[in-house]
Every structure is written in C-alpha cells, then in structure tokens.
Amino acid sequence: MEWVNALSRRPSLEAAADEVSEIAQQALSGPPDLGLVFISSAFASEYPRLMPLLRQRLDIPHLIGCGGGGVVGSESTNSSTVEIEGDIALSLTLMRLPQVRVQSFFLPSDELPDLDSPPQRWIEAVGVSPENNPQFIVLADPFMSRINDLLQGLDYAYPTSPKVGGLSSSPGMRGANLFFDDRAVREGVVGVALSGNIAIDTIVAQGCRPIGKPYRIAEGERNIILALNELGATDSARPPLEVLRDSIVELSEADRELAQNSLFIGVVSDEFKQTLEPGDFLIRNLIGVDPQAGAVAIGDRVRPGQRVQFHLRDAKTSAEDLETLLQKYGRDSTTSASPFGALMFSCLGRGEGLYGEPNFDSRLFHRYLDGVPLSGFFCNGEIGPVGGSTFLHGYTSVFGILRPALTGNREP
Questions:
Q1: Of 64, 80, 137, 93, the residue nearest 2 (C-alpha)
Q2: Strands (E), 239-372
Q3: pLDDT tier at 88, thresholds 50, 70, 90
Q4: 95-116 in b/e burial notation, b at 16+ Cβ within 10 A?
Q5: CA 350 – CA 20 distance, rounded (Å)
Q6: pLDDT (tens digit, 9 = 90+) per residue, 74-85?
Q7: Separation CA 390–CA 228 (nearest Å)
Q8: What is the sign, positive or negative, of the torsion defined by CA atoms of 50, 55, 58, 62?
C-alpha cells in the first residue's frame, strides 16, 4: 500500500494544482486508486475550478475533498508535516490500495433516508454491503441540518464500521465547498467506503480533563439535567448546579478562573464500561443554567441513568489528552500491521490559536507515529467515534490511521 501527500502554497490555483499533481504522481509506483484533496478558504472564489483542473492532471477513479480554514500536509514527499492556517494552501493525497475496494459516494441532504427507514435504504445510498466491513471517510457541508441523522443512519446500517471526517470550514456563507469526482457540490456529504485488506484506527482527542466526581443522571428531559446521583447511590439526588458549584470550590485558583470560560460536561456513551478512562466521555457544551431549579442545559439529549462529569479545557489539557491517547494507541497496536498513512481532522479552535505555536497536534502525532505520513484539514466540526457510536465533535482533533487489516490479504 502506498500513500503520498503533496502540499503547495502557490497563489495561482493552476500552479498549485500542477505542483501537487506532479509531486504526488511521481512518488507513486503506479496509478492511484483514491485521492483526497483539501484546499484553504483563501481559494474559495475558485472552488468550482479545482476538480476540472485536477482531473486534467490526474487519471484517478475516485477523488473527493473539501475546503478548510486550514490544511495539513507535507511540502515535499520527505518533509515534515505542516499545518497551514488562514493562508493559501492546497493539499493532495494519493493512495495505491491493492486488494481494497473503493466506493465513493455523494449524498445530497434532501435525499438522506429517514431515521426510521430500514438499514437497506442506507446501504443502497452508500453502495456497499455491511458484510464487507467498510471503513468510512466522511466530509460534510457545515450547514447540513441533518448531520446527526447521517451519523446515526450510518451507525445503524454499519454498526461495526469506523467513520472519521469533518465538516468543511471554508466561507462564512453557503457555497460549493465539497468536491466529488469532477465537480464542486453545495450541500450534503461526500465520502468513501474502503473494503478489503484495510482498517482505519481512530483517535478522538477532545482536549478536556474531568473535575470533581462522576455522577449518574437521576432526572432529566430533552437536553436538561434536573438531578444527579452519586455513583452507587439511589437516594442522594442533588441539583446539578449545586454539584457543579461544589466541584469548582475544590479547584485551584487558576482552574476556577478557567472554569468561567472553558467549562464543559462529559457524557459516558458506553453504558457497560465500569472503569472510565480518557476518551470514554463525549464532551458537550454547557449552554444554560436555571439558578432557581438548579438545572443545567447541555448541547445534547440526556436520559436518566447516564453517567456524567464536568470537564475543563485549555491548551495544556488538550496536549496531555492527545498525548495520553497516542501513548495508549501505541500500546494497543503492537500486534497490528504498520500504518501507511493517517488523516487529521482538527477543529478551527485548536491549532496556533490554542497552543500559541504552529503544527502542535501534527508534531505530537509524529512523536509517537514517526514516519507515518499525515494530511487533513481544519474543520467546523469533527466526526469520530466515542464508545462505539459516531458523533459530531467540537474543539477536537480526530485522527484516522490507515493500515492493512489484521485478517491478511483478501479480495474485496
């Protein structure tokens, strides 16, 4: 398997397309099977021209991509990864995937199956059987109102398949910022399903650390938590705002100050896991409180019985969270085939604005996966699994690490 990335900063779209196409194709030993293209919003007015330009230069059966507030790639095939934020850049990744079936797809928003549709409707829309254990890369329009329906539908039809990706993050206005085959498309989702001798391992770094203790929701409706119980107790329900205040009192002065602007809540998505670790919480925003009732509203639906814990986020925590997950991946993947490439889908709220220095997440990635080529973009929302289900995240870096499947060589 081969993975080649090329990145260009040339201000002319024609020159940038020439450069990345020439570099990437020369580095491959044969024709590519799949291409992924990410382009910065500095080129937004020229998005409709991108795919025709690349198609003139590439003979490739499957080519998808999107616009981003920043792009990730390598300026030459043997250089280190760079994260280009808020500046002109074009990133092209080409892959040769022997014994892998590549199925690309475009799903317009108004053609998505309903959530109560049978799984077969989703399977027909994507064009690949769950029996093939497809591995998904998904890129979506940031204005897509049914993004959660899409992720739930894909999980419903393909419950064991990993899905990684992000929402395009180009103009602040609606525009054709997704790329599929030979054209730019305005709305919906584009993606690829990879079947056969391939696996995508995932790392979802949400950049938060817990404070206080975990609790269980005793009472809640819609997105409002009304009462919390201590774990193992059934008769000690307390208003969540009271629990939050007690948690904050126990913090250091620096953390109390941080809690004024960077406070979140984590929801445990795996109901059966007993020992909680980093990565087990689905981080959601706190969007409101009711001081009289002591209730809190969060950015997701809740139900009684779920475990939750308040969290803080800052640059130090984000770095430690990602490093912990990378270390865990290294320990858990010792029997796996070696990765041949990886994708990074990072929130616009991370990068240099969070860390105060460029290339932070990609550099940390390479500290633990040295030599694995990396490409991607800065998103308006990141797609990745937590606790066996796929979610849309914020302030997160999601990595999809591609490697041969453990089952050995087999025809797709």
A1: 93
A2: 263-268, 281-290, 295-298, 307-313, 341-347
A3: very high
A4: bbbebbbbbbbbbebeebbeee
A5: 26
A6: 987 667 899 999
A7: 26
A8: positive
